[in-house]
Amino acid sequence: MNAQYGRDAAARAADVIRRKAGVQEPVIGIVLGSGLGGLAGEIDDSTHIPFREIPGFPTVTVVGHAGALVVGKLAGKNVVALAGRFHMYEGHPPQLAAFPVRVMHALGARTYFASNAAGGIRRDLDAGDLMIIDDHLNLTGVNPLTGPVEEGDERFPDMSAAYDEELRHLLKACAKKLDLPVKEGVYAWLPGPSFETKAEVRMLEKLGADAVGMSTVPEVIVARAMGMRVAGMSCIANAASGIGGTPVLHSDVLEVTERAALGFQALVREFVGALPAK
Ligand code: HPA
């Protein structure tokens, strides 16, 4: 483990956040992916802490990622949410990509909710669809747990049920209640930042990927190593290269996810409301 982004650094960041926001133990930590940051604005009694004020957090560079940690209440529950995240394609190590989840854990969150924008590979996944992540493929060849084991981490975390079955059922039940269509599938993590070639998309399809993106997996691996329960959701922003017949543009990714964000926000609010209080 890169100690710079380990447990002690997370505890220091959590101290600063608690001092600024007087945080109550969050029921859940949520990372808001590209175009999905609007949920941060729905958090009640909120304190927004820019990334630059949090020790260990670098400044965010990606368009569509606001770069603030937000604490407050959603559906009456204490939450901590990250509008923006750190990606490997920015030159960050995977340990930094996962660092905010260590901070959420240090604040007391024991459930982690990941969200992202992704390219749809499976033919029934259309732009604007929400996909509950039921499993992932780590195709980057890197792992955020590489190195000395952090105190409290599982050295060899089981990943056979990385995305908690009960939480997936709860998400589906909440979607049904809201009459919101949701799909389910496998998310493949590639490093980016270039989008996939057509041949890569054909390969991903053969490997069992339903959607592809450039984030989420390092956070989920670290969350599992710390024993957190994990749920994840992809907003399908576009058909992955070669399926749609049109080029993939980051501006389109943002536009589509921002349109799908209302359904996403309603679903996450319902889901958080249904979680047991701490
Ligand atoms: N590929 C990889 N990541 C993405 C895509 C894509 O097509 N769309 C949004 N994020």
Strand content: 15-25%
Q: How many independent structural domains? A: 1
The low-confidence runs, each spanning 5 or more residues with pLDDT under 50, are none
Distance between the termini: 30 Å
Total DSSP helices:
6
Total strand count, please? 9
Helix content: 25-40%
CATH structural architecture: 3-Layer(aba) Sandwich
Q: Just give the CATH class.
A: Alpha Beta
What's the name of the CATH homologous superfamily?
Nucleoside phosphorylase domain
- Taking strands numbered 1, 2, ... along the chain, how are they ordered across the largest sheet? 5-8-7-6-9
Which H/E pattern describes the elements?
Answer: HEEEEHEEHEHEHEH
- Helix/sheet category: alpha/beta
Mean pLDDT: 92
* Rg result: 17 Å
Q: Give every kind of bound small molecule, once each.
A: hypoxanthine
Major sheet, described briefly? 5 strands, mixed, barrel
Shape: globular
Can you characterise this structure?
The protein has 6 helices and 9 strands. With 278 residues, the chain is α/β, with parallel strands linked by helices. The protein has one domain: Nucleoside phosphorylase domain (Rossmann fold). The protein has a 5-stranded mixed barrel, surrounded by 4 helices. The relative contact order is 0.21. The mean pLDDT is 92. Residues 117-119, 195-196, 212-214, 237-238, 240, 248, 253 line the site of hypoxanthine.
